[in-house]
Amino acid sequence: MYYVKAPAKINLTLDVLHKRNDGFHEVEMIMTTVDLADRIGLEVREDGKIELLSLDRFVPNDARNLAYQAAKLLKDTYRVTEGVTITLEKNIPVAAGLAGGSSDAAATLRGLNHVWKLGLSLDTLAELGAKIGSDVSFCVYGGTALATGRGEKIEELPSPPACWVILAKPTIGVSTADVYGALDIEKADHPNTKLMIQAIRENDFDLMCETVGNSLESVTLRLYPEVAHIKEQMMKFGADTVLMSGSGPTVFGLVQHESRVNRIYNGLRGFCDEVYAIRLLGDRETLA
Ligand SMILES: C[C@](O)(CO)[C@H](O)COP(=O)(O)OP(=O)(O)OC[C@H]1O[C@@H](n2ccc(N)nc2=O)[C@H](O)[C@@H]1O
Ligand SMILES: Nc1ncnc2c1ncn2[C@@H]1O[C@H](COP(=O)(O)OP(=O)(O)OP(=O)(O)O)[C@@H](O)[C@H]1O
């Protein structure tokens, strides 16, 4: 069995610029990977079939699964005769704004490129991944990046300042399409992407905290008041900054001092089942 790691992402910024003619939105986002990952096992089969095994009851184990779709796309595009059994160990919360499914698809592309000996570049895998979902291209590279277009155009950035990340996910799943659908771009918050890039390049933690922002946040906060409650509590318990990731509902807090991490974690665990205290991964090397 060949194992690949599929880490979650958070959006340090997510600016929605305008709606396009194809129904998608033009975005500018700064994404970074965090140390919470699914694990994907790949076993080559000679009968040419693709099979997916998942123990998580919230995740489909058929052609609806993004990891399955990744395998099928790669097999069809490059006329691969071999098949694969994909074992999915899910640790990233589902429908959470953490790109769990997209990261599984990306890791499957990377892993199959290896076990099927295709010799494709990451750029080629990222281009292919964009056909599965807007977040897949970023997940193929991992690390930290500016993502533009509908999210599929990736420019690598250095690692953000090192810190702890507290993730808290309320017990609701959010549909990305619904959140984009309910967005009023004029009224939304528009983070300063350039300033965030400066904060990252200058390794300035305080500037990073001041500059986080997400155009989709106010939509999800309006639809699900419990997300606002988690934000307030996380701030109150002492996070340096707090923001919703992607289309939500997961909220992340950035924390510089380890001494505060336990207090925030324990405080949130009092009323939220899914809380994680992890580190930013930040650079691409950690995916190898
Ligand atoms: C919210 C984010 O997770 C931020 O990283 C992404 O923008 C969403 O990425 P994703 O889940 O991979 O999204 P996709 O599967 O490509 O699209 C789901 C739906 O979200 C909406 N969508 C997505 C991306 C985008 N730039 N504009 C959109 O309007 C579309 O209605 C689309 O049908
Ligand atoms: N491998 C997978 N892992 C999780 N969900 C999957 C997977 N494949 C398909 N899905 C489906 O996709 C939906 C969205 O799940 P996912 O966890 O990827 O959302 P997300 O974290 O909000 O992603 P994003 O941040 O990219 O919008 C789920 O409701 C699930 O049915």
UniProtKB/TrEMBL annotation:
Domain GHMP kinase N-terminal: 65-143
Domain GHMP kinase C-terminal positions: 196-272
Top-rank EC class of the record's enzyme: transferase
Catalytic activity: 4-CDP-2-C-methyl-D-erythritol + ATP = 4-CDP-2-C-methyl-D-erythritol 2-phosphate + ADP + H(+)
Entry annotation: catalytic residues: 9, 135
GO molecular function, one term: ATP binding
Alphabetical keyword list: ATP-binding, Isoprene biosynthesis, Kinase, Nucleotide-binding, Transferase
GO biological process, one term: terpenoid biosynthetic process
Pathway: Isoprenoid biosynthesis; isopentenyl diphosphate biosynthesis via DXP pathway; isopentenyl diphosphate from 1-deoxy-D-xylulose 5-phosphate: step 3/6
Function per UniProt: Catalyzes the phosphorylation of the position 2 hydroxy group of 4-diphosphocytidyl-2C-methyl-D-erythritol.
Family from the record: Belongs to the GHMP kinase family. IspE subfamily.
PANTHER family reported for this sequence: 4-DIPHOSPHOCYTIDYL-2-C-METHYL-D-ERYTHRITOL KINASE, CHLOROPLASTIC
Official protein name in the record: 4-diphosphocytidyl-2-C-methyl-D-erythritol kinase
Species of the source: Paenisporosarcina cavernae
Gene for this chain: ispE
